[in-house]
Amino acid sequence: MTSYNEEKLQHYKEKNKNRARLLIHCPDQPGIISRISEFLFSHDANIVASHQYSTDPEGGEFFIRLEFDCPELEAKFEQIEVDFQPIAAEFNMDWKLTAVRELKNVAIFVSKQPHCLLELLWEWQSSDLMANLAVVISNHEDTREMVESLGIPFYHVPSNKDIRHEAEARHKEILDEHDTDLVVLARYMQILTPEFVESYRNRIINIHHSFLPAFVGARPYERAYERGVKMIGATSHYVTNDLDEGPIIEQDIGRVDHRDHVEDMKKIGQTIERSVLARAVKWHLADRILVHQNKTIVFS
Amino acid sequence: MTSYNEEKLQHYKEKNKNRARLLIHCPDQPGIISRISEFLFSHDANIVASHQYSTDPEGGEFFIRLEFDCPELEAKFEQIEVDFQPIAAEFNMDWKLTAVRELKNVAIFVSKQPHCLLELLWEWQSSDLMANLAVVISNHEDTREMVESLGIPFYHVPSNKDIRHEAEARHKEILDEHDTDLVVLARYMQILTPEFVESYRNRIINIHHSFLPAFVGARPYERAYERGVKMIGATSHYVTNDLDEGPIIEQDIGRVDHRDHVEDMKKIGQTIERSVLARAVKWHLADRILVHQNKTIVFS
Amino acid sequence: MTSYNEEKLQHYKEKNKNRARLLIHCPDQPGIISRISEFLFSHDANIVASHQYSTDPEGGEFFIRLEFDCPELEAKFEQIEVDFQPIAAEFNMDWKLTAVRELKNVAIFVSKQPHCLLELLWEWQSSDLMANLAVVISNHEDTREMVESLGIPFYHVPSNKDIRHEAEARHKEILDEHDTDLVVLARYMQILTPEFVESYRNRIINIHHSFLPAFVGARPYERAYERGVKMIGATSHYVTNDLDEGPIIEQDIGRVDHRDHVEDMKKIGQTIERSVLARAVKWHLADRILVHQNKTIVFS
Amino acid sequence: MTSYNEEKLQHYKEKNKNRARLLIHCPDQPGIISRISEFLFSHDANIVASHQYSTDPEGGEFFIRLEFDCPELEAKFEQIEVDFQPIAAEFNMDWKLTAVRELKNVAIFVSKQPHCLLELLWEWQSSDLMANLAVVISNHEDTREMVESLGIPFYHVPSNKDIRHEAEARHKEILDEHDTDLVVLARYMQILTPEFVESYRNRIINIHHSFLPAFVGARPYERAYERGVKMIGATSHYVTNDLDEGPIIEQDIGRVDHRDHVEDMKKIGQTIERSVLARAVKWHLADRILVHQNKTIVFS
């Protein structure tokens, strides 16, 4: 593989130097959009994309994602944040403003199976996954060579149920050092502690190798084979402390038939897993996902 | 089949009595959304859904679809239209305001094959296609019984290339009489004249039984079979005077293999045709489609 | 709708008057195909399609479906059956020989929701579902008109848990009277007793409105909505005495997103249910399905 | 990436040491299957999979693919070939017998875009593509590092219309040297001469970046964008001397919408291209494809 295309990255940053995203969640009421768009217009911003969702126009919840261009964004960014606070307070908003040119720092956790990691590395190399791949952490050595050949730091941190807390202490150290925004579990086969999950709330994406809620837990392909299903699937979701019960981001399926044994299902499943995980990660990086009551709103 | 569910229809109208849709196309510039949303807020309207698309933030085209609730809409509707005109003029807008409770009048043209007509009748009966099915026109008698059993007027208007103009004169008479908003060609096998097409510009939806631009013209399944394709498709599009070249609304495909002869392809294709046409018609009825430079913007 | 196309039916019977199907399941060993094909050749039969599946060449199970043409089939049919018995005994075969021109008698059970029944009636009317639709049985009156308008007998047999046995006694009476080969539960919302299920072993096809094994049991769309899945599905399966645990025949899925409420999911689901059930019924009618250890082998 | 899993390869060869495949095409007549299966049984072979297709039972063409296990296959292979010749002659067969353990030698041609090459390398590395990747030939240097890092010979052979014959002379030299069975054009952007194509008849697989026959020729994504299609596709086919007109092996599609510009379509298309090409190559390697009258019969 060729090394990462620094030129494309600079092009992306340059192209998006004046672009920002505003994500908002608040109780619904008339006038929210009017107030926000007036605010942006008064700050010389031009809205280039907007997605809105209301759970119920009568007393429900309001969600919006806005993308806008604003000349001299870098200089004005903090002032925009300050100026928006009164509006946010008035409407009781959860909100986040992000500059598109600032790439998120991503850490990937992986165990032995490399296919999901490989897909993310590939997308990243071809500039389809816009992030800083800051670090890869594994409880095995298998993928070290592949990761380091791309110039990405690789840490081998052994982990199992007996040394979970020591391992996580080390994980946190590494994540902090790399100022990590997002943790991706690319077929990482260890359980995370509630403390760890809480510290990355809605910022840990897992890929589960079944069509949830079918086959929650271990050995989903074996159980799919036993049941004689005609389709297998994969599910990407944010991690919570209920195993495989976190907010679902994306799912997809593939056909199988009576000739497919467990090993065939695993191969067919790998292709599904890698694309389902990659889509979820890209949507997160593009600030397209809002979480509400254990469900996701994906503005795709 | 049971007769059309009048109760559901009334429920729909009641539920949507204060809901309207605003579709806008204009040159892009900062401040459009701010101006529109301020206008709606000042008229006590609450935006419940919005979709926006800009071809290019720098000097491109701007498209938006807004759905909003406004108390006492019926009484205020005309005033809102009047009040919006200065804004429309200022931004050089093409625009349209529609009241959701006012169903569009739809005429369906069909020849011998009934499957697309049947799908539309079915969707309409089960209240999934919200329209007044005003009339069915055919150059054959085959579907009369089915149509009239549902209480829908059926007109047999013979047509072929020698009597095209007489036939169309009669078509126009019928369409005018039923105040027709949309013409659906549900496998209608006659060519329309440029005058007719012009008088229903972007208001005639056709289903073509191929994955356009593959197999433009006659006998697409025969040609697909000859070519040995592994997938066949269907395309719904607005009719223009270039045969099968109008703006594409929706497409879908199905798999075929070496065992499928032309007759098998036709059967597989029928299922695709009927769903692709139904989706296009529903999107049109819900004011989800904008046309620009022979392409559609579908806010689905 | 036009009445059933008697002409097409006669054409089908005429075209297939010399065609038969042979389904076999036995322990695998070398020489089975040689023996069968030699037998057929010696009876002047020409194999026109064959599908084979072996669970494991070493001591596994062997399954085959053969379609063959044999001149004067009607006259020879019984002799072929007699002559095949020694081979069947030698290889310890479960087997079945069917004449393609003899249509199976089908009974459809339905409750209030008509969409699956409608799909089957439609396919039957357009000669895509080759069967005698012998009778429709319902615990409600809703679909009587639709069924009787096509000349199919309709029986209203009230049923609930208190009168289950009386209802089933009546069901059996009706099924026997129509010499029923296959029972299709087209959204029939009553539980069947073990005795009834046993008497139609692998001859009752149900449609479950979820992607099994997700959402076994009641209210699957409500539970899919609660869980926030991004896809919903439907599953057709043979009925056993374990609720929703019988051999799966076919599954399919459709995409949903955060905007889809339970009612939207139900509508999207209806389209999936009707096609998944229709495919399963057609495969059964064409003797394409073998059952082994609670799984299906579908030679599609 | 880790180096190729030699252990898995040996396991595959050992596991399949007694397995062979027999592909046959001949005029249809009764008794063919009987004759073949009797022959195999008399050679102690056990048929483990069979696929048959007849264009028309009355005077059509007959195609079959058989997979069988035969003890001591290596020792008996040539004798089986010799013994089968009289049968082949009697039925006027085109036929081919292959030993599964003998991997085919594959040459990949690529230009600048690496995604299809990468997919094939990936599948090969993970032992999902059972072949000897003998050599990669390119008219550019871009992919050399990636290829050589896996221990595969890479040849840079400049080519353009002025030096086509010199280039192809060099190509043939390299292909002969590696005893090449199959040439895969993994986005190779040069035209091949009729002589070259003829010398690898039905053994050159190309990936075309459109849903053929839509957008034959150059710049398909640009033309798809211009036309405003809602789906884009890719097609793998055997190369003939009619550009993009060879027998289609596999096709697939992906959805696009009004927001997708040419660059977006290319990215979406890459994912489709790589999977469509990989499937075609795997089917060819598994002897699953027969060609008849510019169409493929794929026994998948």
Description:
4 copies of one chain form a homotetramer. By secondary structure, chain A is of the alpha/beta class. Chain A has 2 domains: 17-99, Alpha-Beta Plaits (2-Layer Sandwich); 105-298, Formyl transferase, N-terminal domain (Rossmann fold), CATH 3.40.50.170. The first copy, chain A, is built from 9 helices and 13 strands. The first copy, chain A, has helices spanning 6-15, 32-42, 73-91, 115-125, 144-148, 164-177, 194-199, 220-227, 262-285; strands at residues 19-27, 46-54, 61-69, 94-99, 105-110, 132-138, 154-156, 182-185, 204-208, 231-238, 248-255, 289-292, 295-298. A 7-stranded mixed sheet of chain A has the order 7-6-5-8-9-10-11, sandwiched between helices. A 4-stranded antiparallel sheet of chain A has the order 2-3-1-4, covered by helices on one side. A two-stranded antiparallel ribbon of chain A has the order 12-13. In chain A, α4 packs parallel to α9 and α8 packs across α9 (262-285). The radius of gyration of chain A is 21 Å and the shape is globular. The mean pLDDT of chain A is 94. Chains in contact: A-B, A-C, A-D, B-C, B-D, C-D. At the A-C interface, β11 and β13 of A face β11 and β13 of C. Chains A, B, C, D: Catalyzes the hydrolysis of 10-formyltetrahydrofolate (formyl-FH4) to formate and tetrahydrofolate (FH4). Chains A, B, C, D: It comes from Salimicrobium halophilum. Chains A, B, C, D: It catalyses: (6R)-10-formyltetrahydrofolate + H2O = (6S)-5,6,7,8-tetrahydrofolate + formate + H(+). Chains A, B, C, D: One of its GO terms (molecular function) is formyltetrahydrofolate deformylase activity.
